[in-house]
Amino acid sequence: MRAVKTWVFAAVAVLLVLAAADSVLAQEDTIWIKDSHGRVEKLERVSVGRETHRFIRYKIAGAVRSWEDEPTENVVRIEHGNKPMNYALADRERHNGNWPGAVDKYKASIKHDRGSDWVKKYARFFLAECYRMWGQTEPGKLNDAVKAYDDYLKEKENSDHRFVPNAYYGKALAARAANKIGEAKAAYDKLGKGPYGETWEIYGQFGSAQLTGGSAAIKIYERIIEKAKRKRMYNIVAAVRLSLAKTLVKEGKLKEAIKMYKEIASTPEGVGKEVLAAVHNGLGSCYEKLASGPDDYKRALFAYLKVVVLYSSAHSEYLHALKKSRALLEKIGGEVNKERAEDLRKEYEKALKQ
Q: 22 partner at 20 to 30 Å CA-CA among 109, 285, 292, 312?
């Protein structure tokens, strides 16, 4: 009998040890950090501590060294290992692009999930992000996004969290899309004053300058380009020059705009697809406005088709390129072009629903 009891106690002890080990593993986080050359290192079996807009504190499991602080701007991503059920479901829906489903689950996480300090901070922030993304197809959700960002920002416990500058930027984007220009500019200006570092300062000043427009914006753009080059923010450099090219178009300086568009397109390294797609659509528009015959229309068509072929993920620019390409094919004429135009019409209708 004693032997049986001894065996039972030993088995229970082993199970408790295994359960504890599983619990430890479940708590482990993963963090991605980039170096000065832009190379990203993935660190697994990590415990993430404080997450501020200045630094991320973390410790590698089993390491002799204690906690380390990494500047937040070097941290590409953090994946927490101890996700509660509602939060985990919300994350899955967000990654799948199901914005309504993600919104519901993040709300459930905020209301019901218990545990680690990070959960509600993340849930509130990503709730706002999902409303903003949902607003791309249902504009009424943009107002919900602005409110959700405000709800995140007004929480005292979030005052120095790493998502604070992201929240101001997201609010600016949502407010701008909702035509709440005053709120958008206030959010951009908050970033532009530099409390969250030079990278966010550049994003804020660029956004604010876009809303300001005119000759005052052009002077600001020149300073932003200098700062962005120093920080190797090539996408911002290209985006600023894209804004300058659009200004030239508005002023009727089409040949100068074409030159600038071509310069941007010739150095695509580090430039996002949205910007590059807008550049080629801009070229197509300029060629079309200057067109005097079929060959000129073909040159415009090739610029639009480049967006259709290479940049379908830049959704709004892709739709614009499909629409313009179809119109030009019909204008150029011919049976083959008529068939191609019909194919593009079908693709446009399909893409419109996505």
A: 109
